[in-house]
UniProtKB/TrEMBL annotation:
<keyword id="KW-0539">Nucleus</keyword>
<dbReference type="Pfam" id="PF00400">
    <property type="entry name" value="WD40"/>
</dbReference>
<protein>
    <submittedName>
        <fullName>WD40-repeat-containing domain protein</fullName>
    </submittedName>
</protein>
<keyword id="KW-0677">Repeat</keyword>
<dbReference type="InterPro" id="IPR037867">
    <property type="entry name" value="Swd2/WDR82"/>
</dbReference>
<dbReference type="InterPro" id="IPR036322">
    <property type="entry name" value="WD40_repeat_dom_sf"/>
</dbReference>
<feature type="repeat" description="WD">
    <location>
        <begin position="139"/>
        <end position="180"/>
    </location>
</feature>
<dbReference type="InterPro" id="IPR001680">
    <property type="entry name" value="WD40_rpt"/>
</dbReference>
<dbReference type="GO" id="GO:0016070">
    <property type="term" value="P:RNA metabolic process"/>
</dbReference>
<dbReference type="InterPro" id="IPR015943">
    <property type="entry name" value="WD40/YVTN_repeat-like_dom_sf"/>
</dbReference>
<comment type="similarity">
    <text>Belongs to the WD repeat SWD2 family.</text>
</comment>
<dbReference type="GO" id="GO:0003682">
    <property type="term" value="F:chromatin binding"/>
</dbReference>
<dbReference type="GO" id="GO:0048188">
    <property type="term" value="C:Set1C/COMPASS complex"/>
</dbReference>
<keyword id="KW-0853">WD repeat</keyword>
Length: 375
């Protein structure tokens, strides 16, 4: 692997090129995630330099990467969107959404356009061209705050969940939703890697509902009982505090993140608990999507799978916690961390770049993590 500059304390003002090794691409050097996972290190810290003197750093609400993995985007609670170049290790662009606010910002399959949820004025989802900061379309219909946006892995369709107790399906080509599901407290949505099944997490009923995308008008094809499958986690974690819902890329597991003492790794076929991922350094101070009491600001995604589906990476009050899903849990289904990656800052939002061996974490500042070639 090429030398990677470790420039956390770089004060030169220059933006170094980060020599990042691809994990998924033809005819280029690759490194197995399992080979580099224990040697990830905080490598590049981004502080906002556009803030007025004395103004605190805003909280970062979400992190997303575009499909090629070359761009990283954050939505922040000062009503801005920040875009960064991954390979160059630099800040590229600031987009303002002062009128409507912003959260849950996600790239579409076109790297020059994004969707995001509003935080004021109304509850519309906004479709934005990033090259000129112009709106392409508004997706209107929700009557309360949007809590989740999930983009289809292979098409221009997406799902939204809202506190208005609806899940809506959309296509980028129309401002009108294509389908609406009435559910009890649907908070999070996720697609399986094939795009044929989607899951909806409903903490109000302690359940995860799985739907066939071709026949979503019918009853769900599976209903997973979170209360039954919660294992040793706190009972209240069954009914609120869901932070993340995602499928592993091999389709075998579902990750249900919580803002409690750990996360739930479930079998994607029957919903049974595979392991309770114990978080020894404590949960972050963020609220779960849709919550308004008991924390600082709302987050979106404090844990994620690695691209190979083998590892789960999670934030905490300090450090980054990593579990190997191939590890053997205890008799009570508790799986302790395989690695603790040192970081003194709180890691409240976590994302793994699906195209590169690279992790991004954030609370008030964005951090890029890369494998240390000298470890």
């Amino acid at each position: 692997m090429a030398s990677i500059p470790m420039d956390l304390d770089d004060s030169s003002g220059s933006a170094p090129t980060l020599n990042i090794t691809r994990t998924i691409a033809p005819n280029v050097p690759t490194s197995k995630v399992s080979d580099v996972m224990p040697v990830f290190r905080p490598t590049k810290l981004f502080k906002r330099d556009d803030l007025k003197e004395g103004k605190p750093q805003p909280h970062i609400l979400s992190i997303d990467f575009d499909d090629p993995g070359d761009l990283c985007m954050t939505s922040e609670d000062d009503e801005t969107i920040q875009i960064y170049s991954v390979k160059e290790g630099r800040h590229d662009k600031t987009l303002l959404s002062k009128k409507y606010g912003v959260k849950l910002a996600k790239f579409t399959h076109n790297s020059s356009s994004i969707i995001y949820a509003s935080t004021k004025q109304n509850d519309a989802i906004r479709y934005l061209a990033t090259h000129d900061n112009s709106f392409i379309r508004y997706f209107e219909g929700h009557d309360a705050a949007v809590t989740s946006l999930a983009l289809h892995p292979g098409s221009d369709n997406f799902i939204s969940c809202s506190l208005d107790n609806t899940v809506r399906l959309w296509t980028m080509n129309s401002k009108q939703w294509t389908a609406k599901l009435l559910l009890n407290n649907p908070t999070l949505a996720a697609w399986d890697p094939s795009g044929t099944v989607f899951a909806i997490a409903c903490p109000g009923s302690a359940s995860i509902l799985l739907y066939d995308h071709r026949n979503y008008q019918r009853a769900p094809i599976s209903v997973f009982d979170v209360m039954k499958s919660r294992g040793p986690i706190e009972p209240e974690a069954s009914f609120f505090g869901y932070t993340t819902l995602s499928f592993s890329n091999d389709g075998k597991h579902i990750l249900l993140g919580t803002r409690f003492s750990g996360h739930l790794l479930l079998d994607a076929f029957d919903g049974k608990l595979k392991a309770f991922l114990r978080r020894p350094n404590g949960a972050t101070r963020r609220l779960a999507p849709g919550e308004s009491e008991g924390g600082t600001v709302e987050g979106s995604g404090d844990c994620c799978f690695s691209p190979d589906g083998r590892y789960v990476i999670s934030g905490s009050r300090r450090d980054l916690t990593v579990w190997d899903t191939m590890g053997t849990p205890s008799a009570h289904k508790i799986l302790d961390p395989t690695y603790i990656l040192e970081e003194k800052r709180e890691t409240a939002v976590v994302a793994f770049n699906p195209r590169y061996n690279m992790i991004a974490t954030a609370d008030e500042e964005l951090m890029f993590w890369l494998p240390d070639p000298h470890a």
